[in-house]
Design brief:
Rossmann fold; 4 domains; 7-stranded parallel beta sheet; EC 3.6.4.13; ATP hydrolysis activity; helicase; RNA-binding
């Protein structure tokens, strides 16, 4: 089955093609038809099976873009998952002009959420406590709601949100569709299903576990900007026979193959757009040793069995654990040892934990090779090549005569001539400068330091920076600093900047670098080499109905400005009343004066 076999809307199918999905996962194939028919759904599936797309794709296909009131409400246990699901909706709706999705969760500026709700959103994704707050304020109206999705219901039960879910469900229209997804089915979740789902379709995806004893698994924590650099260093230092590198899209196979070839590696692409004859030719080259690196998509690599395949690299983390197991199964066959390297970012740690659970192995963090390591390897290889030439007894007499002539004619020493010849030999592949500063790892902590704690509850400072990042320079390599003519005096916060840039410039939040707030202006790092159309769009963007006036940062930073300056309202920069709670004293998950406010995923009360 392919996604084209499912009756999804044309705009959604086009987005699926853009993302690079080639065939639906089991839960997607079974869930999408039921949701498209309008049936309630009870889905049992583990994290990492692709369930976000299982409900997002069919629900987007039924969205009425002319109706501005919320049509879909997705409840999630944590703010991280809320953001992730909202981003997935935005990604799949890229060809739906005028579509809006809004994540709402505790710890986020309530005023910004209220303004966004007033503007209208087709899909709301939120944590139960904050959704309750908006319902009580009547800032969120569910009169036009078509579907409610309860995502990771058992996790919401574990966090104590069952009463909240029951209350929220009572506020929804009686004829709405309900989709409930859970990894397990305890009594309380079954009770919710019995109370609120009408004749639901049942979809159960049994978790497939795998133990790959012959494969050494490693994870390299990287950021998107430095992924290619990290891969290049690994290829330089890691001894391998043949390697397959997995990416998500067909386009990425060609682009990465070209970049690696430009760096001197024997690489080629393998994807579904290639003819069968060309694919067979590429695989044959790999088997015979004239090709060392294959860049492929999941579908293109199915059934691939090459004896010399020693390494598998997940350049793009897969969307589900089953795909990961299939990918790394290209190596370590017939009792041979293999190595699987996974590139992951801080925001992909949920999938990383799901992969560890599926493979029943902890994936250790590998140290990214330094430039000093790369230099040492290249020098050692060069010495070995020189030694082989001497050992093979090549005809060197002609060159010895040439060296003697150079010595007499130019009064050159043997050391200077040898150095010049070495330079000529390595001119196309110079030895890196060992003193080059290391690229700091920006995406989360080292794997050995992170432990297994959940990634919710991350606390932030007044400028939106993680508190652990204070006093430490962020890595802005490959980025350009821009100035925005709005700052604290205009009530701007980092979330406003990220939202405006992401929406107007169609730039992912991961691609937006370090943000600094000043009294009268702000600065933000954006990717180098942005398209002129994107820059022009950002120049015309507005934040809180004020023009951003984006331009290149020049000159020094404003002097004499304070981070904690109070304004006339007695508030600090973040808009939080001194000595009180956020949101006017109403804590996340508050249910009235006679009940204690609940702690949600943000760590705020």
């Amino acid at each position: 089955m392919t996604f084209a076999d499912l009756p999804l809307s044309e705009a959604v199918l086009k987005a699926v093609q853009d993302v690079g999905y080639e065939s639906p996962s089991p839960i997607q194939a079974q869930s999408i038809p039921h949701l498209l028919e309008g049936r309630d759904l009870l889905g049992l599936a583990q994290t990492g099976t692709g369930k976000t797309a299982a409900f997002a794709l069919p629900l987007l296909s039924g969205i009425d873009l002319k109706q501005r009131d919320p049509q879909v409400l997705v409840l999630t246990p944590t703010r991280e998952l809320a953001i992730q699901v909202a981003e997935a909706f935005q990604r799949y709706a890229r060809h739906m002009k005028g579509f809006h999705v809004l994540p709402v969760y505790g710890g986020q500026d309530m005023r910004g959420q209220l303004r966004s709700l007033q503007r209208g959103a087709h899909v709301i994704v939120g944590t139960p406590g904050r959704v309750m707050d908006h319902l009580r304020r009547e800032s969120l109206k569910l009169d036009g709601l078509k579907t409610v999705v309860l995502d990771e219901a058992d996790e919401m039960l574990r966090m104590g949100f069952v009463d909240d879910i029951e209350w929220i469900m009572e506020q929804t229209p009686a004829d709405r569709q309900v989709a409930l997804f859970s990894a397990t089915m305890p009594y309380q979740i079954r009770k919710i299903a019995d109370n609120h789902l009408k004749n639901p379709a049942m979809v159960e995806i049994k978790a497939k576990t795998a133990t790959v004893d012959t494969i050494t698994q490693k994870v390299c924590m990287v950021s998107g900007f430095h992924k290619l650099d990290a891969l290049t260093r690994i290829l330089e230092v890691e001894p391998f026979d043949a390697m397959i590198i997995f990416v998500r899209t067909k386009t990425a196979t060609v682009e990465l193959a070209e970049k690696l070839e430009a760096r001197g590696f024997a690489a080629a692409a393998l994807n579904g757009d290639m003819s069968q004859a060309l694919r067979e030719k590429v695989v044959d080259r790999l088997k015979k040793g004239s090709l060392d690196i294959l860049i492929a998509t999941d579908v293109a690599a199915r059934g691939l069995d090459v004896e010399r395949m020693s390494h598998v690299v997940n350049y793009d983390i897969p969307y589900d654990t089953e795909a990961y197991v299939h990918r790394i199964g290209r190596t370590g066959r017939a009792g041979r040892q293999g190595t699987a390297i996974l590139f992951a970012t801080h925001r992909e740690r949920r999938m990383l934990r799901a992969i560890e659970s599926a493979t029943r192995q902890r994936i250790d963090t590998m140290r990214l090779p330094s430039m000093s390591d790369v230099r040492d390897i290249r020098i050692r290889q060069f010495k070995e090549e020189v030694g082989k030439v001497l050992e093979m007894g090549e005809e060197l007499d002609v060159f010895r005569e040439l060296v003697a002539e150079l010595e007499q004619e130019n009064a050159l020493s043997y050391e200077d001539m040898a150095a010049a010849l070495c330079f000529m030999a390595q001119k196309e592949r110079p030895f890196p400068d060992a003193k080059e500063p290391e690229q700091p790892r920006r995406e989360g902590r080292e794997r050995g330091e992170r432990g297994d704690r959940p990634d919710r509850g991350e606390r932030r400072g007044r400028d939106g920076e993680r508190r652990g990042d204070r006093g430490r320079e962020r890595n802005n390599d490959g980025m350009v600093r821009y100035r925005v003519e709005l700052g604290r005096d205009q009530g701007i916060n980092p979330g406003d900047l990220v939202g405006a840039i992401a929406n107007e410039g169609k730039i992912s939040g991961q691609s937006i670098g370090h943000i600094r707030l000043f009294d009268s202006c702000s600065s933000v790092y954006l990717p180098e080499g942005m398209d002129k159309a994107v820059i022009e769009a950002l120049k015309g963007a507005k934040i809180r109905n004020r023009p951003m006036e984006l331009k290149l940062w020049t000159g020094e930073e404003p002097q004499g400005e304070r981070r904690g300056r109070r304004d006339g309202a007695g508030r600090r920069d973040g808009g939080r009343p001194q000595g009180g709670r956020r949101d006017g004293g109403r804590g996340e998950g508050s249910r009235g004066g006679d009940r204690r406010p609940r702690r949600d995923n943000s760590g705020n009360r």
